[in-house]
Amino acid sequence: MLRVVLFVLFCFYTGICGSDESKGDKVVTVDCSTLRLGQYICPDPSVDQIDTETQQYKGCTKGKIVPSEGEADVQCIAADGIICTETNNSTFTRKMPCKWTNGYSLEIALLLSVFLGMFGLDRFYLGYPGIGLAKLCTLGFMFLGQLLDIILIAAQVVGPSDGSAFVIPYYGAGVTVIRSDNETYLLPQADWHNIT
């Protein structure tokens, strides 16, 4: 107890313990591409970076493997006391995932499917002329194909033929498809037996 009191008195009279470095006002210059989660805010909330028509980041580009899984350069801000070497201030850009859209609206596709799906206009709109022509000739596969397309479009299973995501003009139900292929690693389970 006596040591604590002496330490506090020493700090008070000398001012050493109250320097800027001990308060955390120290400024560090780093490469901001190496910052970890919690050391930056992305996107920067003071900059409007969302496209109001698509609800995605502005400048979202088409993905290389899956077209709808794109990337956009987004302005981020580092935490207090961090200066980026790239810009000599606390802002920097980082690639963030986004859904690439090409102008196909979920609302229009669903309305076409409900009201004109028997004539295949929903499939023509989404870029599937072959299925659209088949639905036109068979009256929506005797209305069964129309009902199936209403469900598939509403669940966002069927999307535009170019691989883009639907434009959903509100912050609402967006579907993210999880894909698995031969490159996906499966964690071995306890009930698996050595099969050779």
Automatic annotation (TrEMBL):
Transmembrane segments: none annotated. It comes from the Eukaryota. Pfam families: TM2. It is a multi-pass membrane protein. GO terms for cellular component: membrane. Residues 1-18 form the signal peptide. Residues 103-151 form the TM2 domain. It is found in: Membrane. Keywords: Glycoprotein, Membrane, Signal, Transmembrane, Transmembrane helix. InterPro entries: TM2, TM2D1-3-like. Belongs to the TM2 family. This is TM2 domain-containing protein CG10795. It comes from Papilio xuthus. The lineage of its organism: Eukaryota, Metazoa, Ecdysozoa, Arthropoda, Hexapoda.
